Amino acid sequence: MATETGTETSTTEGNGTPQATAETLEVRNPADGSVTETVTVDGPARVRDVVARVRAAQPEWEALGPRGRYRWLGRWRDWMIDNQDRIVDVMQSETGKVRADASLEPPIVCNFINYYGENAERLLADEESTPHFPLLRTKRLKIVYRPFPVVGVIGPWNYPLILSVGDAVPALAAGCAVVIKPSEFTPLSAMEMVRAWREDVGGPDVLGVVNGIGETGQALVDEVDFVQFTGSERTGKRVMARAAETLTPVSLELGGKDPLIVLSDADVRRAAKAAAFGAMMNSGQTCLSVERVYVEDPVYDEFMRRLTEEVRKLRQGADGRSFGSDVGAMVSPNQTEIVERHVADALERGASALTGGGRREGPGDYYEPTILTGVDHSMAVMREETFGPVAAVMRVRDEEEAIRLANDTRYGLAATVFSRDPKRAERVARRLEVGTVNLNDVLINYAIPEVPMGGWKSSGIGYRNGPDGIRKYCRRESLVISRLARSAGEPTWFPYTPRKRRAIRAATRFFNARDWRRRLGRR
Ligand code: NAD
């Protein structure tokens, strides 16, 4: 992409920030450390231009209606299905994901396109009603969903497609134009998707991408009408503070410290496999990753034996297109340092590593799948987001202790409960302070667009998916339509007279009261 030169200063936070100058960013493949590509940084002036360009095309896009927009989005879906290998190759080259993890993303985005494409008309249909108050029944009411003209989507590095393009899909389906700012670590997947929309699909000019770090992100927040942000709690707060200056609404999907609870009547074999998958999939770099595990005493020993067996079997390393590996690289070197710090802190304070416990020898940036026991809530690994292939497990006395510990966190993204008794599992789920609970399954909610996903507490504000996943990209316009368009006036209008006011008072008293004594004005 073209850039504005000379307007940007480099933003450097932490040792692992990509090599950034005023003009360029180096994208590396964490599987071997090689430079994949150098991309141009977009300064504030360039961001303004891109937003202005898509803003100009948005009214025509909105006018196409849900069906017209789905025709374009459907062509994009078809391109994705036909070019899956190409997209996955690009993604692996900037994330070091194993093939299976990277291959999950295109189908999820296709599913989002189909869900919102096929349901937008229903979800955004005018809501018609009449007032419940009898004296106002001469009005017809309509709630109309009108899209925010331009939505800015700011994404993280752990899922470069679903957390950039995936969030753009419902906004486009709603009739908005979208500008994506992908993570500085992983801009290539979103760039390729935007290129395909423009060049291969020939889609309307309502989708753009800008690259850079904090300054580019801030400039986007300044220019757009709604911000969809996914990333860390720290940056989320900055985005919200910046958006406050222009009173721009935000939706924030932030970090998590998700618990998995194994109750005494669980299918322990399934629970152990789920814990291994939930904690290690995508090298533990999933906002919904299982980070803490609480196991009821009677099944603890069997669970630990099975979990250790599962994790020892995992193959780690780059697998190209072969699907021959289970656990890939750490995407950001900053994150590997955080994982090292949390595990070292736990080990120093008396925890034990049943597997892993350190970085793997290079090439590439890999952290060994690690199971920790002997942990407690004084340790960073039980309190802060670790975001690596680490499962920290605690034995608990009973259900009550599991719930108390699961809720003992400032995060509230999601949780998992295992029990053969569906009523018991649901009883526990309803007491957890999180936005989503998977019962006898793990991580799966993200792939199901029908259910809202949002963080409670420090895990975010707002929801993606579900009906609000598309409605949030719209402003509500209420139409209050009088059926008495030809009458000379309304009883409440001027002039006020004692007779009219007495009549109104008696009538409002009559219709507001819910007992006859008051209705008839008797004390
Ligand atoms: P991050 O906060 O460092 O960066 C996220 C994005 O914000 C990047 O594109 C970055 O360039 C941009 N940015 C940085 N400074 C900015 C500023 N001042 N203004 C605007 N934008 C700015 O997050 P990350 O390290 O890329 O991602 C990992 C985090 O994301 C983890 O905490 C993880 O839990 C979270 N996450 C949450 C969800 C969810 O749905 N809740 C999903 C995936 C990841």
Q: Extract low-pLDDT stretches.
A: 1-15
Overall strand count: 22
Structural class: alpha/beta
Q: Quickly count the helices.
A: 18
Notes on the protein architecture:
With 523 residues, the protein is an alpha/beta fold. The chain is 40% helix and 19% strand. It has 18 helices and 22 strands. The strands form six sheets. The protein has a seven-stranded mixed β-sheet, with helices on both faces. Helix 9 links the parallel strand 8 and strand 9. Helix 8 runs parallel beside helix 9. The longest helix has 20 residues. The protein starts with 23 loop residues before the first strand and ends with a helix. 49% of the residues are buried. The N terminus is likely disordered. Bound molecules: nicotinamide-adenine-dinucleotide (NAD). Nicotinamide-adenine-dinucleotide binds next to helix 8 and helix 9.
Topology:
Layout: E1 24-28, E2 35-40, H1 44-63, H2 65-82, H3 84-95, H4 99-103, H5 105-123, E3 127-129, E4 139-147, E5 150-154, H6 165-174, E6 177-181, H7 188-200, E7 207-209, H8 214-223, E8 226-230, H9 233-245, E9 250-253, E10 258-262, H10 268-280, E11 290-296, H11 297-312, H12 333-348, E12 352-355, E13 359-360, E14 366-367, E15 370-373, H13 380-383, E16 390-396, H14 399-407, E17 411-412, E18 414-418, H15 422-429, E19 436-439, E20 456-457, E21 460-461, H16 468-471, E22 474-482, H17 498-512, H18 516-519
Parallel strand pairs: 5-6, 5-8, 6-7, 8-9, 10-11, 10-18, 11-16, 15-16, 18-19
Antiparallel strand pairs: 1-2, 3-4, 4-22, 9-21, 12-15, 13-14, 17-20
Helix pairs in contact: 1-8, 2-5, 2-6, 3-7, 5-6, 8-9, 10-11
The chain binds nicotinamide-adenine-dinucleotide.
Nicotinamide-adenine-dinucleotide binds next to helix 8 and helix 9.
